Structure formats: C-alpha cells, structure tokens
Amino acid sequence: MKFSAALTTFVFILPLLSGQAFVAGQRNNGKNQGNKGAAPPPPAKNTGAGNNTGAANNQGAGAGGDPQTSLTLDPKVISAGFEKTGQEVPTAGQVASLTSSNNFINFCLTVNKPLTNGLQTKTGSCNTAPLGVIAATTNMPSSKFTNPVNGQDIAANTPFDITMAVKNLVTGNFVNAASNYYAAPQQVNAQGNIMGHSHFTVQAIPSFTSTQPLDPNVFQFFKGVNGAAVNGVLKETVTAGLPAGFYRCCSINTDANHTPVLVAVAQHGSLDDCVYFSVGKGNGANPFNGGAANTANNTAAPPAAGNTTAAGKGAATNQPPANQQKGNQQKGNQQKGKGGRRMVARLSRDY
User: What start and end residues bound the annotated signal peptide (predicted)?
Assistant: First the structure.
C-alpha cells in the first residue's frame, strides 16, 4: 500500500512537472522566435496591389533604401487623381477612365497579354514602364519637311534626299529597339526638350485625292533617323529612289525608347509632318499649282508594291528583315524589278 501511494503521488506530480517544462519551453521558444524576428522579413511577392502599397518591407526610400531599386511603391509618388473616373461632372459622350489607388503598378495582371519587356511583340503586349517626363507646352516638338515638298514631282528610280527641319527635339538619341522598345520613361534635357529621334516613312497612295486609309504594315521606304540634326535639319537619302507613282512621306517623332513624343496638353498642333509628292508623273500631276492637275495622272494606280527601298543598298529592295542591322541602319534583301507583289513590311530593327 505504501508503494502504491508513493507511486500514485509520483505519477500525479510528473504531469505537473511536464506541464511546467512544456510551458517553459514555449516561453523560451517565443523568446527565440522574437530574437529571430528582429531581422527584417523578406519582401512581399509582387503579385497584387495589396502586398506592395507601403514601406512595410523596409525596401522604400522612407526606410533609407534606393527608391529606384525598391519593389514597393513610395507613397510620395502616388497620384490621387488616378482614383477619379472623370465622370464626377458627367459630359455627354465621355467615357469613364480606369481608376487606380496604386498608380496601376499591377495593371498588366488584368489583361491576357505578355509583358512588352523591351520587345516588339507583333501580336500585342502590355507595357509596364511609366510615361515619364511630359514636355511642357513651351517645349513641344515640331517638324516640317523641306524636301520633298507638297506636289513636287521627282524623277523615278533616282536617289533623292528627304530633309526635315525640327525643333524642340534633342535628336540623335536612340536605344536598342530590339531589347529596349518602350522600356524606359520619356526624358528631357536641362532645357526641357525631349531626348529622342525621328523616323521617315514613305507609303504609296492611289492618287493625290485618295481618301482611303493606308495600311501601316505596307510602306515603300522606312528609316530611323538616328543622327543628330545639322543646323536644325535631319536628312536621309533614298538611295535607290522610288518607282513612278504617288506617295505620302511622314515623320514619326519619338523619345529615345521609340515612344511617340508626349506633351503637356491634348490641344496642340501636330508634332509630326506629312507631305504628298509624285514620282515620274511630271508637273501636270501637281494639284497644288493652281488647280492644273492632270486627271489621268492624278488617278493612276500606285507603283507595284513589290519594289521598296531602304537606305544604303543602291537598288530596289524588299522591306528589310529583322536581325540585319549594322550601326542601326537598314539592309534589305535585294529585289530586282519584280513588280505586281504587295509588299508587307517586315519587322525591322531600324526603328
């Protein structure tokens, strides 16, 4: 009986000691966890707006980090105006804007498109780079072709220069279009002018009086004008000239990353220029010389679109393929006198 009583007492006390040890262990564990918790937690995954809207991860400028490498949105750059639909005072025909309380940082998660990621994706993509510095109204770019001019007729298949006067655009600034397309915000220089470059594109038109929209995929000449303007004028040579026909020549003024130039207001004159000219049609085709247009010439069909030109080849060429670039100048696959084919422009790195 004594043995049984002692055993009973021992068994009764053991759970109490075990419980105390367990509680003590929990306390020690908590202390250890607390010590481990002194280190900053890993940054939240960038999978949703709720995870990255503050400086809680000690990644932002407020915590002494570099805001340009941080994966969190610094509250100082949140644009509260983005939360407005624009329909606070409804206007007939006006649609509501998309809204965001976090600068649309995860917008591309809402669409079924690949990220642009610096590439020219023909099937479309979603770009994540901010628009950047918007040029003031006093710094809006402007351009005007000086050759050819409207209504001018030039000789067929003969080299000629395209020249364009430009202002408020710091030309000669271009990035690699194959890897950095739309991949950075627009920048301006100390004077507020956009850092960028221009492009010349020539498309055949049915006539001077044609009203049909053109296919942007089809052009007879395209050149990224990568050099800086000389005395305010850009120049590129159409080395092989153009076949007889009617043409529209336009500029595409962009920032360094090939984004069309962005300015401070919606109401402004065109930031680009276009001219209409003929090739091998004579002065009778000119509708700008007091109305003496030659009707027969003025309605002639455009030249066979199978012939295109690119600077630097000296012969009629097919639209240049991608991945053939030296010094960011186009090279074309040579095409000799094969008319009747509709030329569809291929993706070129000469952007």
Answer: 1-19
- Count other Cβ atoms within 10 Å, centred on residue 191: 9
Token pair for 351: 């952007």
Give the position of tokens 């080299």.
159
Give residue limits of the domains in the chain: 137-330
Structural tokens at position 62: 């407020």
What residues pair up with 115 in beta bridges, in sequence order? 126
Q: How confident is the model at residue 63 (pLDDT cuts 50, 70, 90)?
A: low
CA nearest neighbour of 303 among 229, 213, 241, 239: 241
Burial of 56 (0-12, 13-18, 19+ CB in 10 A): middle
Q: How would you label 109-138 residue by residue, b for 16+ Cβ within 10 Å and e otherwise?
A: eeeeeeebbbbbbeeebbbebeebeebeee
Q: What is the pLDDT of residues 217-268, one digit of tens each?
A: 999 999 999 999 999 999 999 999 999 999 999 999 999 999 999 999 999 9
Beta strand spans in the chain (E):
142-147, 153-154, 160-167, 169-170, 194-205, 221-225, 233-238, 245-251, 254-255, 274-279, 325-326, 329-330
Residue length of the chain: 351
Mean pLDDT lowest for which of 65-69, 128-132, 214-218? 65-69
Q: Kindly report the pTM of this predicted structure.
A: 0.69
Determine the Cα–Cα distance for residues 108 and 47; give it in Å rounded to an integer.
11
Homologous superfamily (CATH) for 137-330: Immunoglobulins (2.60.40.10)
Say whether pLDDT at 313 is over 90: no
